[in-house]
Amino acid sequence: MNKCPFCRNPIEISWSYCRNCNKPLITNINSLSNNRVRPIPSGISIYGNEFIEEEEFFDVNIIDDETIEYELSQLESQLSDSERLGKNMGNLLLKKASLFYKKRDFSNALKNLELALENFKEEEDKMNLIITHNEIGLIHEETGFFDQAIYHFDRALSFIEEIDDVIKEIQVLNNLGNVYHLINDLENANKYYQKALTLADGENLELEAIKTASNLVEILLSLEDYDRVKRILKRNLDFFIQADDMYGVIQTRTKYGKMYYHLGEEYYDQSFTCLTGALELVNGIKNHISIFIRKKLEWECFLYLGYLHSLWDSDLEAEDYLLKSLEAVRTFEIQENIKEGIVLEAIAKFYSLKGEDRKAIDYFSYSKDIYQKFGDKLKIAEMKYQVAKIFQEFIQNDQKAIQYYGEALEIFENLNKSKIAADIHDKLGDIYISRQRYDLAISNFEIAKNLYAELEDDYNKTIIDGKINSLKDTENHKTT
User: Residue 24 pairs with which residues in a beta bridge?
Assistant: First the structure.
């Protein structure tokens, strides 16, 4: 039975609006697989005369390997002929790269893109230089080489500005925003998204504005600018409903679910309704989309439903949704990805709350390994800190706690994270008291006190002063 994504009451497939809540509905699900637009899920690929999305250029539907191998052999023959005749091979190399991408063979895809780049440089073919730099950037983004991704997107952008193509400029600006978002540089992510949005609005490019605003929502959620998020999501949802765009509706409903979750306990029921409604919509079009796209649409719904059930103490449901989210990410990403780190961290925190300490430590470690691969130092430190807390507070293994606190502390200090550094020195002081190493305890408390003073945190500074004075009184009492 079909249900309204807004009020969840039964509806007829032929209805253009819900007769229960009067909201407009998608009119024909079956036509959506052939006539659709959707917001940017990750990077934007450029190929041919127009920008097209990564999954349409590099089609991620399950491909018959024999078909790809046959096409590759045909291309090899054409490349040999072109080389023999002294013809430019750039476009053939681009096609070859796309086939390797379909196989998720990023190494060979990148190799052929770099060869294509050299060909286009010789020809001074600016359009294909834009295409190739952009594709190389997307692969570096997907494989975690974010500095290289930024470099190649910047190079694509410099050529685009020379040929004055606003749409292409908007798309590459979005790609830059996406990478900066992945590395938690919200300032730069916001800058590039805002620039793209200004260009789109200035040129009355509604679709590009909608796509960019959809990306910007993720930054605004982190900045807790919920009023602007609401305005963007309302505009986007109206647009996608009017366009009969199920993909856009699903992604916007998911973002509504995330927003309501972040707004707090009063809005959890609305978050649940949006997320489960989005999953029902995905289920309604599952026969029209690849498994990769389906999992891409589902993973955050599962993740946030896991968060909600964990808060509601529905442990079985929470664990089920979190593991479903992990399975979804591992399906559509093929290899390790920053999203996997996010889900593993969520599972670790769930097991920690349940008191399953060993499982929690394992999942924090798995998550740390992912973040380490992608160079996210802050997250690496946070995972080590969480493991240290478990060893200190629950397993009561002081030696391990000191080890992990020390490793986390070194990273936090290098990142100038004074508050968490002060907290760790405080915790280390407590551990050393329990081990009767009062000299080390006082040393850590003194550092914590100074850090709290710099932060103008008088409350915690006063607590630390009390601990130091108590220890000194104890030491004085012993000497007398």
Answer: 17
Q: What pLDDT, in 10s, does the model give residues 195-245?
A: 999 999 999 999 999 999 999 999 999 999 999 999 999 999 999 999 999
d(CA 336, CA 425): 34
Give every CB contact of residue 204 below 8 A, 6+ residues apart in sequence: none
- SS3 at position 467: helix
Residues in the chain: 480
Question: Apex CA 167: angle with CA 218 and CA 183, to 5°?
Answer: 30
pLDDT band at 1, cuts 50/70/90? low
- Residue 123: which residues within 8 A CB-CB, separation 6 or more? 88, 90
Q: Which long-range contacts (CB under 8 A, 24 or more apart) does 284-288 make?
A: 284/2, 284/29, 284/246, 285/29, 285/32, 285/33, 285/246, 288/29, 288/30, 288/32, 288/33
Nearest to 236 by CA among 225, 223, 250, 221: 250
Contact between residue 278 and residue 5 where contact means Cβ atoms under 8 Å apart: yes
At 470 the pLDDT is 92
CA 454-371-360 angle, to 5 degrees, is 90
In angstroms, how far apart are the furthest CA atoms of the chain? Answer: 97
Model-level pTM? 0.82
Which of 268, 267, 233, 262 lies closest to 250, judged by CA?
233
Distance CA 135, CA 474 (A): 66
CA pair distance 441, 425, nearest whole angstrom: 9
Closest CA relative to residue 157, chosen from 116, 199, 185, 115: 199
Three-state DSSP at 189 gives helix
Spatial contact of 138 and 157, defined as CB atoms under 8 Å apart? no
Compute the half-sphere exposure of residue 69: CA atoms within 13 Å on the CB side of its CA. Answer: 3
Handedness of CA 118, 149, 371, 275 (dihedral sign): negative
Give the separation between CA 22 and CA 313, rounded to whole angstroms: 35
Alpha-carbon gap, residue 46 to 157, rounded angstroms: 12
